[in-house]
Amino acid sequence: MEQAVITFRNADIMNGENVVIYGLDMEVFPGDFVYIVGKVGTGKTSIIRTMIAENKLCKGEAEVCGFKLQSIKEKEIPFLRRKLGVVFQDFQLLMDRTVHDNLEFVLRATGWKENGLIEKRIHEVLEDVGMKSKSHKMPHQLSGGEQQRIAIARALLNKPEVIIADEPTGNLDNETASGIMNLLSEINKEGTAIVMVTHNRSIFETYRGRVMVCQGEKCTEQKEDEVIDLALNI
């Protein structure tokens, strides 16, 4: 049977000192597209932060890309994060350097040394996201959608097993958001698992995937025909 890339078993999810979700059970397999949805403040982002070992797992068990989160050591966290691609709502690009140099910075920071291989990988990921002509641009010269494409290119650099996206379309207009979702769908079809936090109903209804619903200090998979009440404070 195929091995899950992310597993949570009876895990309590913390935000600071407080438990925001009790007893999370969740499995993500290669090629899955999993949405985490819910109202503001229901613990969606706390799950993501736990996956990348930013939030500590104090109760239960979890394994992400072969790393056990309940016992992960500080020195192991960078190695876990190399197996993940993380995409944020606010892009988090380095504004003082070009697109090329943003990507080169990440590669060198994750252990790449050979200039030829670095250049080849930068070219590949920019081509993957349709941005190879923007390599010399500074982030402020790009639109929001273009910046998010660069952020996705950055997430792809180390050929991650999973892309974790926290509201990646939250700051984008509908048309630009559709372009980003089409791009993520293409990446997913090639076998990369995607876990995406969103509170945009039209996205998870248009681009189908498994849906985990956060409400009442629980996060459970949407049952067939279940109606999700997001009534969101956007």
Structure description:
The structure is a single chain. The chain is of the alpha/beta class and about 230 residues long. Helices cover about 30% and strands about 25% of the residues. Strand 9 (about 210-215) and strand 10 (about 220) form a beta hairpin. Helix 4 (about 115-130) crosses helix 5 (about 145-155) and helix 5 packs parallel to helix 6 (about 175-190). The longest helix is centred in the last third of the chain and has 16 residues, at about 175-190.
Output the number of helix runs: 7
- What structural class do the secondary elements suggest? alpha/beta
Principal-axis shape: globular
Q: Uncertain spans, ≥5 residues at pLDDT below 50?
A: none
Mean pLDDT: 91
Task: Give the spatial strand order of the biggest sheet.
Answer: 6-7-8-3-9-10
Please tell me how large the radius of gyration is: 18 Å
Largest sheet: 6 strands, mixed
How many beta-strand runs? 10
Helix content: 25-40%
What string, H for helix and E for strand, traces the elements in order?
A: EEEHEEHEHHHEHEHEE
| Alpha carbon gap, first and last residue | 41 Å
Tell me the strand percentage band. 25-35%
